[in-house]
Amino acid sequence: MRSEDDETVEAAVQVVDSHVHFWDPARMDYPWLAAVPALHRPYRPSDLDTGGHELAAAVFVEAGRADGDAAREVDWVEELAADWPVLRAVVAHAPLEQGAAAAPRLAELAGRPLVRGVRRNVQDEPAGFATTDAFVTGVRSLARYGLTFDLCVRHHQLAEVTTLARRAPDVTIVLDHLGKPPVAAARPGPWRADLARLAAAPNVVCKLSGLATEAAPGHTTADLVPYLAHALAVFGADRCMFGGDWPVSTLAVTYPDWLGVVTAALAGRPESERSAVFGGTARRVYRIGS
């Protein structure tokens, strides 16, 4: 990302990062890494360079390991957290498409001390997947276990998942990466309208994350801020949270530069809004104490 004429973070910032990944291909199989050789190596907490900014807490989000390794992934992340106490919450994988049959897995996850939510990645599923009766049943059952649902979709799926959010009103749904708007194509119109409709569902919150990897090479802060500003406008700062999306984000941006982009989007807003985005919202949603 070009820094010329960009607004950068002037001083160190303390944040709760609502979206980090760790993985080790020697420990588990991650099928998607074969297509991304730049990321096909271990990434552990010791590899995370925040550029001097302090992480008050971090939330691990499942990293696309093979489905059969889902339980082992949580075991491994618990091991990491024992040595890196910044890691305060886990969003684990669960097969929600199994509907009621997913209940034993959800019950097991709810008993894990760090697990706060579930993500079943939907971004590459066919149209209609998120509104099948079985998937809706699986999502709705999360309320029984006190678990949130991280929702990773592409922008063309936002209308579909708005229906899901309305059918699961008792579940806190966390939209990852602003629904992956078409930043590189510079055609935000449909995404803007669809995001606003999704934000009308009061049980949905939004992660300010993953935007740089949706942009064209050579993008600037000015290319990204309008998308963040729209999310802040339709959700409100108390329903938005900072996410680094590290290490996937390193394909397009450094950690401090992404902090600078989000900081630029918050320019001129009250300190209470900045505090919500950089900590308060994530602490509330993922039940992270001070």
From TrEMBL:
Question: Which Pfam families does its entry note?
Answer: Amidohydro_2
- Sequence ranges assigned to domain Amidohydrolase-related in this UniProt record: 16-288
- Give the family, as the similarity comment puts it: Belongs to the metallo-dependent hydrolases superfamily.
- Protein name as catalogued: Amidohydrolase family protein
